Amino acid sequence: MLPGYTGTIVRDGYHAGYGHLAAALHAWCGAHLLRDLKDLYDFEPGKQDWAARMAGLLIEARDAARDARQARKTALDPGVLDDLVTHYRVLATSGLAANAYRRTATAKDARRITRRFLNFEDMILRFATRPDLDIFTNNEAERTIRPVKVQQRSSGGCWRTIEGLADFAVIQSYLSTAAKWGISKLGALRDLFNGHAWIPSGLEPSG
């Protein structure tokens, strides 16, 4: 899928699905990370305090990246980024140390997750090192493709024809884009069938 893609991919940890895209810039989805950290802390709040603090750090960094993007900045202030990276490494290292010799299922998960944070720092903090890109999560992409999977399930698990899939994709893309511009799907369809097809005035809504 996507051979030769050179853009930015916000993804989970399924390397087999994305590892071949060597020319792309990869970013780890922050929403997936926050869910993993929450699950870890909820299972063992007395032993996994590092997870709660790491989640707080990611949210703080997400907000800093958002503020920088809104100010038309292409990078965080060097001091802010240095503090973020230092704190990040301290939390990941302390989490690994706290669980290194514990033999519980949660401790095993904690070791796996802390090693992820240590080994994939560049991918995980991509949203902070590239605040000009709104790439903290891939939730929007997942929401956009969900209707395709829902329709597939209701059709017995597969699409009957490639033409039907293509038609569905065109309609869904049109309605999804209209919704992002604040236009209701029903309104977009009504205008379309009345001969007044809505066409976006730019690549994205202003503001």
Question: Could you walk me through the main structural features you see in this protein, from its secondary elements to its overall organization?
Answer:
The structure is a single chain. The chain is mainly alpha-helical and 207 residues long. It folds into 2 domains: 8-129, no CATH class; 139-193. Helices cover 62% and strands 4% of the residues. It contains 10 helices and 2 strands; from the N terminus they run βαβααααααααα. The chain has helices at 15-18, 30-43, 49-70, 78-99, 105-119, 121-124, 126-129, 139-154, 162-180, 185-193, and strands at residues 8-11, 25-28. The chain has a two-stranded parallel sheet. α1 (15-18) links the parallel β1 and β2 (25-28). α2 packs antiparallel against α5 (105-119). The longest helix has 22 residues, at 49-70. The radius of gyration is 21 Å and the shape is globular. It starts with 7 loop residues before the first strand and ends in a 14-residue tail after the last helix. The mean pLDDT is 88.
Which structural class is indicated by helix and strand composition? Answer: mainly alpha
- Total strands: the figure is 2
Rg on CA atoms, Å:
21 Å
Task: State the helix count.
Answer: 10
- Let me know the largest β-sheet: 2 strands, parallel
